[in-house]
Amino acid sequence: xxxxxxxxxxxxxxxxxxxxxxxxxxxxxxxxxxxxxxxxxxxxxxxxxxxxxxxxxxxxxxxxxxxxxxxxxxxxxxxxxxxxxxxxxxxxxxxxxxxxxxxxxxxxxxxxxxxxxxxxxxxxxxxxxxxxxxxxxxxxxxxxxxxxxxxxxxxxxxxxxxxxxxxxxxxxxxxxxxxxxxxxxxxxxxxxxxxxxxxxxxxxxxxxxxxxxxxxxxxxxxxxxxxxxxxxxxxxxxxxxxxxxxxxxxxxxxxxxxxxxxxxxxxxxxxxxxxxxxxxxxxxxxxxxxxxxxxxxxxxxxxxxxxxxxxxxxxxxxxxxxxxxxxxxxxxxxxxxxxxxxxxxxxxxxxxxxxxxxxxxxxxxxxxxxxxxxxxxxxxxxxxxxxxxxxxxxxxxxxxxxxxxxxxxxxxxxxxxxxxxxxxxxxxxxxxxxxxxxxxxxxxxx
Length: 446
What we know:
This protein is mainly alpha-helical. It has helices at residues 20-23, 61-71, 76-93, 96-112, 118-130, 134-147, 152-164, 168-181, 185-197, 201-214, 218-233, 238-251, 256-268, 272-285, 289-301, 305-325, 331-340, 343-356, 360-372, 376-386, 394-406, 410-423, 431-444. The longest helix is centred in the last third of the chain and has 21 residues, at 305-325.
């Protein structure tokens, strides 16, 4: 098992973008609540050893906890807290090596306390969910909830895994248990998401506001504001989204998720220079596929083909690494391949993703890949599954509209196009104008 020195971070690389920026997104989760609102960050943080009188103390949880495990190397709680600090850190920095350090720390904790170590078991569940290994995440979450049925964070990880595995009713029950045990910012955020999935945006917004009010740390506040911005944006209120994201960035400057939310809001408002700046900053902080695709599609909508291709080339490089390492395809990769690569390959990717993660967003991506490959009879089944919960998603309705149109179901296509544009008239810089154009043609052909 690793000793204390094994979890120290490596020195920063010099010159240019580090290679890990290409491969990192293959193991980073796009899971909404895996860590950010879970309350899994260490509850007890020991101060670092001072090098002398009056020496400053670190505010970095991982650094603080590294000092703790050096001083108390046989303490399983210290190792589990360090592991979760690394998972939280990786969420913010998009550094895959930090997930490796997280696993080393969590397994050290489990080696020291193999039985009843619910904190490390919960941490392993969050780690596996972040890596999109949801079956493994569910196994760890069940171990944690068995070890401690009264752990709210363990119930949160259980809810995450169940959600991403398409077991929605069971996930709602886990969220309710989490809220009953500890109705804090983390639980309220999850409750918000459970209603968002079911299309009750008003209730989702109310609960996320309560999550914000209950937030005890800048990270929790930033997380709630990110999702309030997203809810506003996806309800067609980009100015409100800009305000929420700006407030969050004041609390946690440079946060990639907040920058991306504000970039999308600026895009909807036609403030393209600000949008490009925010997307660029988000990518510099965490080069996640959705950020790269967002900037690429924005540049494409502006007629900046070469600049769009710069982002798409990074996505292609990430996909090449994913295939070489045997990683599971994710939603953005499937959608990108369908629109900018080989649709048949996108179908293969979508099917593989669905086996690992039968979640509504994956059904939508698979539906779009099938449509682009000319397999619309199969595509409509997946598109219906994507909307089966009643989720208010403009992109989902847009995708189903074009599938219905290809099948000759003009009335159904019109209904979905209207729903997409009523939900969010600026849902995508390329697809929203297309939706309006298709709807106009349908109306003129009557």
